[in-house]
């Protein structure tokens, strides 16, 4: 059977050519491409067969799916129904049980080497993977099997990308990010807890229309959404540079919308698109709501101490509960300073003693 | 590198073997006592020392203020640029600090043997360890008098190497990695130093480590300034003159 193109599917669903072209421009804009890319996208969608996406769920909370189905541009309706053929997603699909597993097998054989594997959540490895069972088998087995013939893998969210909360110390189930289980496939990390819906659909749209992986940064995240920090595009940044901060959550500065740096905003250390794309169709994002960023798209954010402290906690390095660099540093400086003072006092005493001895004729002092 | 400890300089001083600058610059008799003086630290080393010290003071103050900013200012944000200015001073001092350090490395090749001491730790030399432990005993009040050294004593040399060479490299690498987050991917800072961030476990971790680095340097400075003043008073040689005008005088001519 000749595979349908995206365009054919869309037309079949009653979408006019006009709205199709509109959709292409919107997509180009969402991906940060210039308007001249709209025809490229249109052309790709008219000529390319649909790429199936298999969406697996491991140890997770489904927040990525929840986010995904709230995408405004491109409307997830379009993505799910027309652009990609989301052939297997046990949360979204209609079928269940044996029927569902049969679809998985069918896609894997029919589109061997040609489908995209999207992973939400991660495999726990302790007890032979028994902490996450899909269709009677450990999730890690399903993940490895489906990954074998995938073209590329998308790691949705901080779970698949980094481990997230289920991997928090001491990580009893040994929840492990995808790239530490699968080594032989290109992996695109789309971290966030969850990732922004438009970021998710944007990444998929890019891969399908251009038939290539988006450009990635050193950590394997798509540059178009993760190349800048929240802080770089934060609308409260002028307050940061001016030196106007919220000191407490109920103070004047908080009411005036000052920068949240002093109440532990992690925008300066977090790479994500929240401050530009925002959430829920661009309505708001945490900082706009008056709370600092907690760095949910950064590796290890769940293990670094308080949400209200900007620097990592040092208690894991053996410095006691809730220690920060300044407390440790000041304590060390006090100890060293005290040591210096005592040493100086003893030195002065010794010197006086030596002087005394010397004047008594015993010439052995270091100096006179 | 020559042995750090001074060969016996009983008058008339034996021309020390090969060591550049080992011939006494002058010998004066003061109050019935002979002072033998040598030219140790050349101008570029001294210049670097003070530029570097100034940079570090500025970097520590501004770095601390970046982490714990001043109380909030009122008025329009367009009226102020306080944090911006503090960060600008930090980054400018960071650049000077880094360029000065590169200059200091180059001078190690051009300068005299004492210009190289900072970058070398001759742990394979017996004399190094003898000096090292003698200095420890001297600081622990177990020895009535220290040894004489033309350059740094081995204990100082060890601290200088660990904190001022390795520490400076660490601060420059983490500092420019943080800086590259602002200049963005594709900038030279990012291409040269951006890899530090994933290596050390992410942006927040690099901030934390850069911050801890400041405290390590502060501890060093406390100890350094104390020991230098103490040695200037109590040891057998002058210290502060060596790093200000380059000349070090010995207070006795005993061999060893
Ligand atoms: C931020 C403050 C300072 C830093 C980071 C610092 C760093 C250094 C370094 C790296 C050296 C080795 C020089 C070389 O071999 O090229 C050195 C030597 C020296 N510094 Fe400092 N210094 C500081 C402040 C001071 C101050 C305030 C004094 C004077 C009271 C001082 C006196 C000396 C002396 C006398 C030496 C020579 C030590 C010797 O001969 O073994 N330094 N310092
Ligand atoms: C002796 C050397 C240095 C000291 C003591 C020092 C100290 C500090 C401290 C304490 C911070 C605050 C960290 C935090 O809590 O987030 C900081 C931030 C920073 N430093 Fe340094 N630093 C040094 C050298 C450098 C150098 C060489 C550079 C390179 C240009 C640099 C660039 C930065 C940057 C970009 C930041 C982050 C500023 C921000 O988040 O707004 N530092 N430094
Ligand atoms: S609120 Fe957070 S992200 Fe925004 S400017 Fe302040 S520190 Fe940066
Ligand atoms: S603002 Fe920070 S914590 Fe909030 S969603 Fe964005 S990256 Fe996550």
UniProtKB/TrEMBL annotation, chain A:
<dbReference type="GO" id="GO:0033748">
    <property type="term" value="F:hydrogenase (acceptor) activity"/>
</dbReference>
<dbReference type="InterPro" id="IPR019546">
    <property type="entry name" value="TAT_signal_bac_arc"/>
</dbReference>
<comment type="subunit">
    <text>Heterodimer of a large and a small subunit.</text>
</comment>
<keyword id="KW-0560">Oxidoreductase</keyword>
<keyword id="KW-0411">Iron-sulfur</keyword>
<keyword id="KW-0408">Iron</keyword>
<keyword id="KW-0003">3Fe-4S</keyword>
<feature type="domain" description="Cytochrome-c3 hydrogenase C-terminal">
    <location>
        <begin position="226"/>
        <end position="306"/>
    </location>
</feature>
<keyword id="KW-1003">Cell membrane</keyword>
<keyword id="KW-0004">4Fe-4S</keyword>
<dbReference type="InterPro" id="IPR006137">
    <property type="entry name" value="NADH_UbQ_OxRdtase-like_20kDa"/>
</dbReference>
<feature type="domain" description="NADH:ubiquinone oxidoreductase-like 20kDa subunit">
    <location>
        <begin position="61"/>
        <end position="206"/>
    </location>
</feature>
<dbReference type="Pfam" id="PF14720">
    <property type="entry name" value="NiFe_hyd_SSU_C"/>
</dbReference>
<dbReference type="InterPro" id="IPR027394">
    <property type="entry name" value="Cytochrome-c3_hydrogenase_C"/>
</dbReference>
<dbReference type="InterPro" id="IPR037024">
    <property type="entry name" value="NiFe_Hase_small_N_sf"/>
</dbReference>
<dbReference type="Pfam" id="PF01058">
    <property type="entry name" value="Oxidored_q6"/>
</dbReference>
<keyword id="KW-0479">Metal-binding</keyword>
<keyword id="KW-0732">Signal</keyword>
<protein>
    <recommendedName>
        <fullName>hydrogenase (acceptor)</fullName>
        <ecNumber>1.12.99.6</ecNumber>
    </recommendedName>
</protein>
<dbReference type="InterPro" id="IPR001821">
    <property type="entry name" value="NiFe_hydrogenase_ssu"/>
</dbReference>
<comment type="similarity">
    <text>Belongs to the [NiFe]/[NiFeSe] hydrogenase small subunit family.</text>
</comment>
<keyword id="KW-0472">Membrane</keyword>
TrEMBL record, chain B:
<keyword id="KW-0472">Membrane</keyword>
<protein>
    <submittedName>
        <fullName>Ni/Fe-hydrogenase 1 B-type cytochrome subunit</fullName>
    </submittedName>
</protein>
<keyword id="KW-0812">Transmembrane</keyword>
<dbReference type="Pfam" id="PF01292">
    <property type="entry name" value="Ni_hydr_CYTB"/>
</dbReference>
<feature type="transmembrane region" description="Helical">
    <location>
        <begin position="212"/>
        <end position="229"/>
    </location>
</feature>
<dbReference type="InterPro" id="IPR016174">
    <property type="entry name" value="Di-haem_cyt_TM"/>
</dbReference>
<dbReference type="InterPro" id="IPR011577">
    <property type="entry name" value="Cyt_b561_bac/Ni-Hgenase"/>
</dbReference>
<keyword id="KW-1133">Transmembrane helix</keyword>
<dbReference type="InterPro" id="IPR051542">
    <property type="entry name" value="Hydrogenase_cytochrome"/>
</dbReference>
<feature type="domain" description="Cytochrome b561 bacterial/Ni-hydrogenase">
    <location>
        <begin position="41"/>
        <end position="245"/>
    </location>
</feature>
<keyword id="KW-0249">Electron transport</keyword>
<dbReference type="InterPro" id="IPR000516">
    <property type="entry name" value="Ni-dep_Hydgase_cyt-B"/>
</dbReference>
<comment type="similarity">
    <text>Belongs to the HupC/HyaC/HydC family.</text>
</comment>
<feature type="transmembrane region" description="Helical">
    <location>
        <begin position="154"/>
        <end position="179"/>
    </location>
</feature>
<feature type="transmembrane region" description="Helical">
    <location>
        <begin position="88"/>
        <end position="107"/>
    </location>
</feature>
<feature type="transmembrane region" description="Helical">
    <location>
        <begin position="47"/>
        <end position="67"/>
    </location>
</feature>
<keyword id="KW-0408">Iron</keyword>
<keyword id="KW-1003">Cell membrane</keyword>
<keyword id="KW-0813">Transport</keyword>
<keyword id="KW-0349">Heme</keyword>
<keyword id="KW-0479">Metal-binding</keyword>
